[in-house]
Amino acid sequence: MNAVSLEEATLDDMDTIIHYLHLMNDEIYQDEFEEDVTRQAVMPALEEDSDAHWFLFRTEDSKTFGTCYIAPLYNYWPIKKR
User: How far apart are CA 78 and CA 82, in angstroms?
Assistant: First the structure.
């Protein structure tokens, strides 16, 4: 199996992220893909002070084959349910 890496995306990777989101949109049979709206949604997580992050999956020869988004999840369980 080839080695893969998960690298944090930067603003320079915006087009790559948009490309993979467009592919995903096509797979789930959504009618429209609004690139401008998608860019506005992706942008905040690519800024340095964001708690959320976009990552790119890359092969050992640096070819990108996917993307993922990771954000903190805050969960609260009421004391009666713990």
Answer: 7
Paired tokens of 26: 């096509």
**Residue 65: partners with Cβ closer than 8 Å, 6 or more residues away:** 4, 57, 58, 59
pTM of the model: 0.73
Two tokens, residue 75: 């969960």
Nearest by Cα to 53 from 69, 72, 42, 73 = 69
Q: Give tens-digit pLDDT for 21-75.
A: 988 888 777 677 888 888 888 998 898 888 889 999 999 998 999 999 988 877 6
